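User: Can you fold this complex?
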Amino acid sequence: MPLLELDGVSRDFDVSRPWLNRVIEREPRRHLRAVDRVSFAIEKGETLALVGESGCGKSTVARLIVGLYPPTEGGIAFAGRRMQMIFQDPYASLNPRWRVRDIVAEPIRFLGTSQKVDALLRQVGLSPDDGEKYPHEFSGGQRQRISIARALAGEPDFLVCDEPTSALDVSVQAQILNLMLDLQARLALTYLFISHNLAVVSQVADRVGVMYAGRIVELARSAQIFSRPRHPYTRMLLDAVPDLSRSGRARTAVAGEVPNPLALPTGCAFHPRCPYANERCRNETPPLEDGVACHAVREKRI
Amino acid sequence: MILDVQNLRVEFPTRRGTLTALDGVSFSIAPGEVLGVVGESGAGKSITGMALIRLLEPPGRIAGGEVMLEGRRIDNLPHEEMRKLRGRKIGVIFQDPLTSLNPLYTIGRQLEETILTHLPMGKSEARSRALSLLREVGIPAPEARYEHYPHQFSGGMRQRVVIALALAAEPKLLIADEPTTALDVSIQAQIIALLKRIARDRGAAVMLITHDMGVIAETAQRVAVMYAGRIIEIGAAQDVIHAPKHPYTVGLMGSIPRISAQKHRLVQIEGAMPRLNAIPPGCPFNPRCPHRFDRCVVERPDLLPAGSSRAACWLHAAA
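Assistant: Here's the predicted assembly.
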């Protein structure tokens, strides 16, 4: 049995204009579908990464899983003990008026043990003395260590990490990613890792889900996604990643932009940017089958 | 050389003493060349750019050195002359396109205004120039978008408008400070291709400030790596990326995640870059350096020849 399972989860947001405008201008209510029938499972001990460009719905999936939003449709089943979330911005997610010790102890404040906090701080590479300091005394990387220590306080077995290193410099990012890998090995953690950075994802993930316009368009083992991508969007994303070994050479220019979620294209949402799109792609939304949602792949046109 | 910077020094006097944000920074950029400036936050990349256009946040000030633009010294120009130079000879592109555009004016009006300020042109001429600039930076249907406001554009399109604005008066030097950082990868590639074309076709010197080594690898001919307010390595992009000479650059390159089919640990540099008020004596990198020896702790290295690049590291001192 998987640790976490999403079954056809959708989430709508009401983006209607205020009531008076709607009445005067005879406008209907408007809904934005941020996540559209997403299904996947995460096995115990693995890291599933969700990648995609801004607005693709990956962070909404994270929030649905931890219960910050209820799903509009579909079900989420969690068979683990406890889950915790690590946020992107280590400046906004720590209370500046609290000492680090209190921040880390907040999830377990009713158990009240200072020794536990010392052990948590040591576990993420900080010293117990750091507990007496305030967040502003730390750099971005150290703050992210504090967030991780806080997340680990309740002894979760599942961590949802929403762009945990995107706000950090590369050398610090390497430290945090290595720390996350070490903790996973030591504490048998399961991760859902949300990121827009494919290179980062390729370093940490066992499986990868690629999202576009609220849907998963490809879901496969990391090795397969990065060596033999199938969906045209995944290929495009990989081509667009700046590559150190290709210096001076042009990357494949990518046409178009992410569609407006209020006016999604019909059929496959990617079809206006897709070189393989045909009539069927314009009219019929491809389901995710065998790890890829693409008519062209299914029809063996690519 | 279009731009020649010698021993630039920038200081921030504070109540608790003077902080040195840039210390002995020297580099030059040739026509048509893209110089990449990389480093982590706080290394002094943006301060270098801001010092060149003299828009340092007070109390920051240039405390020494020389900046030459097309053979003319510009670091000591009066403010009014400097103001004319910005936009005319030096175009600037910032990370967030929204901060460079006025939300209350259409992009057409903003472009026209910039052109009329700097070039001897009439209104209709300015309009056709504005349209051709929009076409050049890849805005589809420029006539239709001319009367649109910045909020009606997507992030990538906005950044193109900002680039068109920066190019309005045919500047000789283009300073691009993290121009692609706020954009999605697929849009990034388009903007990078555009910057390269501008340098090539217009013979402009481009200073590309970024923390993204991948962007540098694809765009720049030469790279300067900054650490704690100094250039610690400078050379051809190929050499710096594939055969880095300074131990910091070696660590930085190793810590960059690359697409790989295997999950694995990254190389990591221990510790963090020192704050400006606590730069150690000697080489500023010495507390984190795996190759540190006695000389590093007491004496600060200048840029020394290291292969075909130059690196500020005693490992490359002639024995």
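Residues 170-187 of chain A form the longest helix (18 residues). The domain at 4-81+157-298 of chain A is CATH 3.40.50.300 (Rossmann fold).
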